[in-house]
Amino acid sequence: MRIPKAISDLVESFEKLPGIGPKSAQRLTFYLLHVPQSQLEEFGDSLANLKKNTVICEICKNIDTISPCQICLDSARDKTTIMVVEAPLDVLAIEKTSRYQGLYHVLHGAINPLENIGPDEIFIEALFQRVGKINGEPEIQEIIIATNPTMEGEATSMYINKKLQNSKTPKLKVTRLGRGIPTGADLEYADETTLREAIEGRREI
Amino acid sequence: MRIPKAISDLVESFEKLPGIGPKSAQRLTFYLLHVPQSQLEEFGDSLANLKKNTVICEICKNIDTISPCQICLDSARDKTTIMVVEAPLDVLAIEKTSRYQGLYHVLHGAINPLENIGPDEIFIEALFQRVGKINGEPEIQEIIIATNPTMEGEATSMYINKKLQNSKTPKLKVTRLGRGIPTGADLEYADETTLREAIEGRREI
Description:
Two copies of one chain form a homodimer.
Chain A: H1 5-15, H2 22-32, H3 37-50, E1 55-56, E2 63-64, H4 70-73, E3 78-85, H5 88-97, E4 102-106, H6 125-132, E5 142-145, H7 151-166, E6 173-176, H8 192-200
Parallel strand pairs in A: 3-4, 3-5, 5-6
Antiparallel strand pairs in A: 1-2
Helix pairs in contact in A: 1-2
């Protein structure tokens, strides 16, 4: 039996998404056969409009409807601090905490030699330009490196830190997010590196 | 920070899919920001065309581009046997085995009182009509009930069997797929019901 092209086309589109294998792609497609045509068209329009109606901010490289983005334009935010993250989703996660009032810099990736992603493939040079630039704007005083605690994230963090140390102004502080045991975790199952970081990073209560 | 509407729209569309939670929906959406516009439009078109370019077969209720479907029209297939399945994906799974040459009947669901799905909500009456109808076509001699071995599937199977026993012609045989230990499984971890079915369904080798 040949599968109708309308079905196999959609299965193929789903299969291209990360974390969706052939079985899930089939399941999603057959599920969609039972939803109203209007919902399918809405979904389709959202896909077609995704990139048309968004833009990468010329300053921080975050994704927004305008450039410079809402955060860069917000005069209430502390323009002397930049938090460096790997992806736009990280910005959302940090914003949800309401504990950070500075600016961001979104790298759109991390250095990963195995996948041929070097510093030039991500928005890393743009970060150094922001640090160097002064023309009337307040000088950057702190860079918080908030890349993921993975091999790639750590490599990226080290690269950024090294570059900044070389061209550093006396005022510039480079920090990274605290490491330790996440809330709700079980000490017994924490890995050695995490425990080591937690001991080193202990704080008075 | 407000999330751009183009992004939240797509996140919402993904969230409506079964098995995709808010986090996965976000992850998929932000992934798609990095794919070419042409791929997004292809995906969107596949969605919009899914239902336009497919039809439910008037005989077996399977999904195809034509009605009656390829399987119902195929003169090489044994028209005296009908396998009853819950979903079009089950047809694909059985077809892949190349061990079945009869026809199908796709219920598009299973009886599930908890979700208010009774016999009238699925294509169950159409099955009885096929069994009763004779006008020139060969008489049905075997109904293989291949609903899932779940509560709902078993209830559906029981309902169909009972109805068929009442209106049964002497020639009509009602069977169900063999139960037992699936290939590659570990006897130690098999549940009691499966083991009981495996013992009852043992075969000479």
